[in-house]
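RECORD TYPE: inverse folding
INPUT: structure tokens
STRUCTURE:
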């Protein structure tokens, strides 16, 4: 793409950089004309969109190589590697290699099933057997392997049926005799097992709890913010106000090997590749079909195999291979279909551009005309073209043209590529910039840096771990209706995702007519006002007008503040960057407005308000409470030195080489931070947190609790006391308290429960299954108390 950009004449670049929405048709036409006469452009398009040059197609040779490697790993009992090799082979294997008796894909599924069985992943093994049978229903080895998996799962009745089918289909007499022997053993086992557990085989499903929003919202015009959502009645915390499926969604590049390309959930060991290209991996056939449509459904071989069997066995076998996905309703939004065929533009272009392609493909699929005119109007999303930098405007022009040519090759629909259609795509790209939501999942990371899911509860031997919560970014999506919610750095609504569905809940009670606002990322407590404003300008191209950025709050004053030179003064000293930003806000206030009602603000900056909005000494570096001058340069130097030492502790923690000397040094540095920084400065909270984790690793648990609490006390000044960030910190605290058998853990867990139910309502246990474990621990304390 850089070569294309470099070749564009300066005059065209300038015209694009200076363009407004009204100029778009002509700037797009200029650039398009230039590319049409520029040979390298056509070469790039051919490489990106012509299946002849595609790098993501199926290849029998590559599949066989990976299969061979998998077989070798299996022989060496390296099952994890063998699993990986068979999955790679499945990604590359064309479905039509081999006949129905020895199809390559079916063989690979059975090889992988054998590995999964050895790894005791029985449900996954069962699913792979079924996948093999959906391709080759008369594959005796697959029925045999399925019987083994069912038997290991205690599912004896199915195991016997599978083995009976295998016996009929097995061509060799020797094989039949062996199966008969195994059938006898299985029947004996079955008789001796009093309770025959029938474990139903289910595809991985993107399950969600069917809760519907109960509250009516209104969309109105809001000064300085465009349209926005408001409540039509009083809404209590924890209420669900909106849920929505995406208009279009895309997985992030870094998650392609770990998450399902359709539902974005974690991939299981028996991940399912696309049938026609080697790009996506899915958690189930259900997701594969939903992403690709009917053509991605595997229809079993039509023959009379099962008709020749005793009727009950034939019925059983037919049911097995037709299970799950064959009757599923398929939506017409097939996000992957137009990207499939082995072409590699969907892998090479940036995620946002591929997302724009998905939006357009959806439109073209449902549109009666093959023209892209008026598309933007029908999408009804706001955009920020006017505020984009010259560089971004040029990039969006180039990508719009490239994308349209790639789509024309891939979609099968012919549409005209001209100034009009290109300008529509440029606008879509700027709509994505403003309206796109990042999909995140919660993950647990323990003090040893090991990650897992909160569904995996700590064993007693892990008692010295702290459990941290980490948010993993997995995808990007456009939710049309949710795009009408504006941003606030002090939000009263919270968005989260289960599978592909977006849910929006009210976190703080709101009155009728109140604006309902989410955070697009920045939040009071996370960054100071200046950083938030800069971020929103860079990422979303607007100047934030929210309450957090226009009214004084303690967090913005103290988050990066220095300590007053007077050791007994609790006033904050600001450097110029923060000072100037706060001055802007302070101008609008009088002491009676705010300070009398707010002890915290009084504590850190009383003098500013006493002067009723006047400039305090006109410069940064003076205490906002007592007016004393502070030499910020020497404070900066002392803080930098202390932070180097804290960083050393963090590095030692990551390399697991923590020593008491490193902790002692960090404690001295913490003291220096306390002397130089304001008591509520975020750096102190972070240092306290690092020291708490270090003490946890060396098993000084009480000291760990003390530092963890100190960190939380500061964060409670920066965020609301019932912010989700506080709940994440309490998760760490409670896990150490539980290790100490400390009954005050109950208090922490109750607070976590309360905060999570306001942010996630009835979905709290689904999003964060670790909560169930924590509640269980509370019950244990209660039982102990009664005894
Ligand atoms: C996702 S849209 C929200 C809906 C939008 N107001 C509309 O009319 O369609 C994001 C855009 O809304 C506006 N916006 C959202 N929050 C804002 C805020 N706190 N201050 C100023 N503008 C805001 C900005 O123009 C931003 O680009």
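DESIGNED SEQUENCE:
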């Amino acid at each position: 793409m850089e070569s294309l950009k470099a070749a564009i004449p300066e005059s065209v670049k300038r015209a694009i950089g200076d363009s407004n929405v009204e100029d778009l048709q002509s700037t797009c036409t200029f650039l398009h004309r230039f590319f049409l006469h520029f040979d390298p452009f056509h070469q790039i398009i051919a490489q990106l969109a012509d299946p002849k040059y595609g790098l993501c197609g199926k290849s029998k040779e590559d599949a066989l190589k990976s299969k061979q490697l998998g077989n070798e790993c299996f022989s060496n009992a390296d099952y994890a590697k063998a699993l990986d090799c068979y999955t790679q082979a499945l990604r590359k294997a064309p479905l039509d290699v081999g006949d129905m008796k020895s199809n390559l894909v079916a063989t690979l599924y059975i090889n992988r099933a054998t590995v999964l069985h050895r790894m005791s992943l029985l449900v996954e093994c069962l699913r792979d057997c079924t996948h093999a049978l959906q391709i080759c229903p008369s594959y005796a080895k697959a029925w045999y392997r399925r019987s083994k998996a069912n038997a290991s799962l205690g599912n004896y009745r199915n195991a016997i049926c599978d083995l009976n089918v295998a016996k009929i289909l097995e061509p060799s007499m020797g094989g039949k005799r062996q199966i008969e022997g195994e059938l006898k053993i299985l029947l004996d086992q079955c008789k001796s097992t009093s309770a025959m557990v029938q474990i139903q085989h289910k595809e991985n499903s993107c399950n969600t709890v069917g809760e519907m929003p109960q509250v009516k919202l209104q969309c109105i015009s809001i000064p300085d913010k465009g349209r926005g959502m408001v409540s039509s009645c009083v809404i209590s915390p924890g209420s669900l106000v909106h849920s929505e499926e995406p208009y279009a969604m895309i997985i992030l590049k870094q998650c392609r090997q770990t998450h399902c390309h359709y539902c974005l959930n974690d991939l299981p060991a028996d991940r399912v590749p696309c049938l026609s290209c080697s790009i996506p991996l899915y958690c189930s056939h259900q997701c594969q079909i939903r992403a690709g449509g009917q053509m991605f459904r595997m229809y079993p071989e039509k023959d009379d195999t099962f008709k020749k069997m005793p009727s009950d066995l034939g019925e059983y076998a037919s049911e097995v291979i037709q299970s799950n996905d064959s009757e599923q309703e398929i939506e017409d939004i097939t996000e992957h279909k137009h990207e499939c065929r082995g072409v590699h533009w969907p892998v090479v272009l940036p995620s946002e551009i591929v997302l724009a392609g998905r939006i357009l493909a959806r439109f073209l699929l449902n549109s009666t005309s093959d023209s892209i005119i008026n598309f933007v109007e029908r999408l009804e999303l706001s955009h920020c073209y006017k505020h984009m930098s010259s560089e971004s405007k040029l990039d969006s022009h180039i990508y719009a043209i490239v994308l349209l040519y790639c789509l024309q090759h891939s979609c099968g629909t012919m549409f005209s590529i001209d100034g009009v259609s290109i300008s529509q795509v440029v606008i879509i790209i700027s709509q994505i910039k403003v309206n796109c939501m990042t999909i995140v999942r919660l993950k647990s990371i323990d003090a040893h840096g090991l990650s897992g899911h909160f569904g995996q509860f700590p064993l007693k031997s892990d008692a010295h771990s702290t459990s941290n919560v980490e948010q993993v970014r997995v995808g990007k999506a456009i939710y049309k209706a949710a795009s009408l919610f504006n941003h606030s750095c002090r939000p009263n609504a919270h968005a989260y995702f289960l599978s592909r569905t977006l849910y929006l809940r009210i976190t703080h009670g709101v009155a009728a007519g109140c604006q309902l606002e989410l955070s697009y990322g920045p939040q009071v407590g996370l960054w100071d006002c200046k950083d938030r404003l800069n971020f929103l300008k860079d990422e979303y191209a607007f100047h934030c007008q929210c309450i957090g950025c226009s009214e004084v709050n303690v967090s913005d004053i103290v988050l990066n503040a220095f300590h007053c030179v007077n050791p007994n003064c609790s006033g904050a000293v600001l450097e110029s960057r923060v000072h100037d930003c706060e001055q802007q806000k302070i101008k609008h206030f009088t002491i009676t407005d705010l300070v009398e009602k707010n002890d915290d603000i009084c504590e850190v900056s009383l003098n500013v308000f006493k002067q009723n909005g006047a400039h305090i000494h006109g410069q940064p570096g003076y205490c906002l409470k007592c007016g004393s001058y502070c030499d910020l340069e020497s404070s900066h130097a002392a803080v930098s030195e202390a932070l180097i030492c804290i960083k050393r502790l963090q590095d030692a923690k990551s390399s697991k080489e923590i020593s008491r000397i490193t902790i002692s040094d960090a404690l001295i540095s913490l003291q220096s931070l306390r002397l130089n920084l304001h008591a509520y400065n975020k750096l102190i909270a972070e240092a306290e947190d690092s020291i708490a984790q270090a003490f946890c690793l060396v098993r000084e648990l009480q000291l760990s609790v003390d530092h963890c609490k100190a960190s939380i006390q500061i964060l409670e000044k920066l965020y609301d006391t019932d912010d989700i960030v506080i709940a994440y910190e309490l998760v760490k605290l409670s896990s150490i308290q539980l290790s100490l058998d400390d009954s005050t853990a109950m208090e922490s867990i109750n607070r976590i429960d309360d905060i999570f139910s306001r942010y996630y309502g009835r979905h709290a246990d689904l999003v964060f299954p670790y909560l169930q474990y924590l509640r269980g621990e509370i019950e244990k304390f209660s039982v102990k108390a009664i005894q």
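NOTES: The first helix runs from residue 2 to 7.
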